[in-house]
Amino acid sequence: MGHMLIEAVREAPDCRLAGALDVAGGTAIGSDAAAFLGFTSGVPVVSDLRAGLKDAQVLIDFTRPEGTLAHLAVCRELGVQLVIGTTGFTDAQKAEIAEAAKALSTGYDIGIIEAHHRHKVDAPSGTALKMGEVIADALGRDLKDCAVYAREGVTGERDPSTIGFATIRGGDIVGDHTVLFAGTGERIEITHKSASRSTYAQGSLRAVRFLADQRAGLFDMFDVLNLK
Question: Which member of 3, 71, 94, 120 is catalytic?
Answer without folding.
Answer: 120
